[in-house]
Amino acid sequence: MSRFVSTFILAGSCALLASTGFAQEGANPAGMSPDTPGKEAAMPAPEGSNNQDKLFVRQAALGGRAEVELSKIAQKKASNASVREFADRMVEVHSKSNQQLLRAGKGLNPDLPRDLDPEHQRVRDELQKASGQSFDIAYISAQIQDHQRTANLLQWHISMGQNEALRKYSMQTLPEVMAHLEHAKQNYAMLTQGAGSAR
Amino acid sequence: MNSTLAGSQCLHQRTGLNRKLLLGVALMGFTAGGGISADPLPPDATYRPLPTLPLDVVRRNDEGAKPAVQRRQQNLLNERYDLADRPMQGVKMSGGRKGVQEGVRVKLRPGSSWESLANMTPEEIKEQGLFPAGFMPLPHVKQLTGGQVFPQNQIDAIGDAEDRNLKRFDVDFDLPDHLTPEFPAPIFLSNRPDLGDISGGKLLTIRNYYAMTVGILTPVQIEGLRLLLTPFPQEEFNQTEDRKVAEQSLGVACLDCHANFHTNAAFHLTPDVRPQAARFRLDTTSLRGMFNQQIHGSKRSLRSVEDFTEFEQRTAYFNGDHVSATRKGVHLPDRPNQVAMMAQMQNMIDFPPAPKLLPTGKLDPTKASARELAGEQVFMGKGQCAGCHIPQTFFLDHMMHDLKTERFYKMGQVFNDQVALPDGPIKTFTLRGIKDSPPYLHDGRLMTLADTVEFFNLVLGLKLTAEEKDSLVAYMLTL
């Protein structure tokens, strides 16, 4: 994990959380933590969670927040109509998704920093300096990378996570994130007149 | 991850001093480290984590979960396919002991027909969610654990012959027996075409191979065969606590999947993709006719039987993971001796005879029926099949092609813990002896030849008529 993690001011409460009432959906996960709660063999309590769940909430929340913040800049500065539309959509969808995430991961104490992580701070600085076509390209490039990262993060969490509510969140979110990625690649191809990015 | 971080949040909130200290360290890292990048994914996104629970607990959990695991997969299969036992009249697999299943088994979505789908664009089908689920990637029964899963016939035969247990405690095979290849499959030798099937209806094992082959094979081939039948420790079958079989296991032999050098439909997950939920299922390929094949593996495109043979053992049979394999006891066959002998043996395996085919790969018009000949016409013409499955070169083109099925569905949907992703380029499989090796495609998502015709009709946008589709199936049965 990044060496910056600990520097962030921690938000959130120390309250332990109440369980959410999701039914055990499918089979048991590939690997369970030694401290997995659950009364019966093979039936981990749906509200149980592992380290991967915690890490996931933190990373996904960080990514989601950057998404909204950078897209808000693009709402103001993007010159291309399609890019502006994309930014509108990102602000709307990711604001909602971030809330869902925090609801699903409530009580996992995800150790959230208050500001963006350093990489996204740098992207924010760059975007604030850029203008015109080069702004649009910089914003969309960052969006492609962020959506690649988020898609991988979700796929990893679906693979390794344990908490039912969170896994459900990841499964519901993934197709949307992948559609955004496609959309971002199409925008990039349109802006740069390169066909290379869109499938 | 650093679990103490998440866990010690309350403590951190009260220790401002601690925070400043860490900030300083971080800033040092910032200046010294140069570029900043976000946190990478944790190692278990690529590497297999070590078990954290004792084997008896794992086993209890896995056995407890197994009924639900199997039920979930059965539900998925029943939603996607008609799994009924409906063999064709008058057609058997090459050994003459098992029927070939007829008809389209992939189920349509409500409100669509094969004709209506053929007249829609991929975008429309995707938008309306009408792509039949059976055309999408097929998940492993237990995707998140994955690993090799053997059909019951193989488990029983190896249990009887070798007293070796191929049954996993966490997962069972999922397809009904009538949708899998003939077992044990006939064996045809390219060095002794005069003999025909040399299996005598028996499964080759480490206990009987010598008597079955002495006088037919060379010493080098027999030694290769011995190695192909010798079990070695593998990911789920080994002696460590990280296994999925009750007792310490001697392991798995090559021909446990490639039974009699064909396939018994044992399945696995691709080694080539991570993370786990993104890996696609792999249906065991037949080893028949490999002497003519120039690329091996659906994705890896290994360039020789030797490379494939050496590598398959090196990385725990399809986990793409030399790290884990090493821990469980790896077999590193010696390249000039052992690998070469194993490869030579594999290269002696021929396709079943196809009496209606001429040496050119074309149908003999004096032997083929009108329907079969009509099917050949479609194959060469409107169906465009021969563009990739070139008759003269054993229906291969030694290429990989991207069929882009994801044009028809929303990527990223999750079915039984598998993420539906584009397949990307996949090797063209041969169609020689094709009636012998259901299920079809690299992951076994199609149950019958009629399914493959509907699949290509849609994916290639062919608009074949019902009659053309039927004749294509009749044609493929002659190959």
UniProtKB/TrEMBL annotation, chain A:
This is DUF4142 domain-containing protein. Keywords: Signal. The keyword Signal applies. It comes from Steroidobacter gossypii. The lineage of its organism: Bacteria, Pseudomonadati, Pseudomonadota, Gammaproteobacteria, Steroidobacterales. Residues 1-23 form the signal peptide. Pfam families: DUF4142 (PF13628). Residues 27-51 are annotated as: Disordered. Residues 52-186 form the DUF4142 domain.
